[in-house]
Amino acid sequence: MEYSPPPLFKQGPSALARLIFFVVLALALLISDARFKTLEIVRGVLGAGLYPLQRAALVPRDLFMGAADLAVTSATLRAENTKLRERNLQLSQQANQSALLGAENAHLRSLLQLSQRATIQSIPAEIQYDTSDPFTQKVVIGRGSQQGIQNGSPVVNEDGVIGQITRVFPLQAEVTLLTDKDQAVPVQIVRTGLRSVIYGTPKGDSLDLRFVPISADVQTGDELVTSGLDGVYPPGLPVAKVVRVDKQADTAFARVVCVPVAPVRGARQLLVLHYQNDVPPRPEEAESAADSAKAAKAKKPAADKAGAKGADKAAEKGSEKTADKPASKPTEKPAAKPAGKEPAHSTRPTAPAAPVKPATPAAGQGANP
């Protein structure tokens, strides 16, 4: 008769041994999967098999979220539609006013005989990547010299100035952003018309309006636009807004801190402007160029006259020498040594006997005393 315990009371390995075994197995599976990706296939098969169950379990949540999104989206779309309609009305009114102002401006310029402002051409571009130098504020766009990009062209977006083209390649171009420490833009305050120059800062998070006297009327919130006096940026482009004005008694200039109007680092699509300013050169440069041209013209005739005088003097001296030489040689030699008394053993060549012909009467007188 067998006295084995019933199956309900059979224990097998102890609980501690099972715990140690499963812990070691879990660690081995984790290490093998992390190092050698041994369970990648198993995970993919299990994920594909359980995906329908997951989607079925998430159906109630998706229905609730979809209904909520639909309600929020419809309300948001209604609000945005209302704002866009109001904005459209404002823009249409501004367009009508700008057309009227443009016609009036053209009439006044023709009346005052002023030249028309040059038209501005734009080329759309997109930022590809930032430059590798972390200490500069520069980006690279996907347009180059083959697309008509020129060095020094201003770069803007729908909000305002972004930067300037500083290097051009055949298919790409480098843009120095407005907040770069080496970038400067001539600006003026819209409210007062005060002109100055705005610079970037080393940190690249703000702008510094320099050369502003303490007595100048500058307030927080003033808008700055391009003045157009440099001939690079068209006038009237939004640049920055004043956020802080520090006036100290021991300095001659106020410290004016500004922030860019356009999102310099957040912009993706840009416009490269091709602006040609037909401004005549400065009077000093024109006068200096005219003076140098006159001096060159004055020096050229003087040099020609001096050369002609030198040539005439050289010709006169040469003619005098050539005139003296044939007259002295034939008269002196026959008088010193007559032809009849010259010894026969002399080594002098007989060729000079020909010019002695004019002196033959003197030789005859010597032969017939």
TrEMBL record:
The keyword Phosphoprotein does not apply. The gene is mreC. It holds the Pfam family MreC. NCBIfam families: mreC. The chain crosses the membrane at residues 12-31. Belongs to the MreC family. Residues 349-363 have a biased composition (Low complexity). Gene3D superfamilies: Rod shape-determining protein MreC, domain 1 (2.40.10.340), Rod shape-determining protein MreC, domain 2 (2.40.10.350). Residues 301-345 have a biased composition (Basic and acidic residues). It comes from the Bacteria. PANTHER family: CELL SHAPE-DETERMINING PROTEIN MREC. Keywords: Cell shape, Membrane, Transmembrane, Transmembrane helix. This is Cell shape-determining protein MreC. Residues 280-369 are annotated as: Disordered. The keyword Transmembrane helix applies. InterPro entries: Cell/Rod_1, Cell/Rod_MreC_2, MreC, MreC_beta-barrel_core. Residues 130-273 form the Rod shape-determining protein MreC beta-barrel core domain.
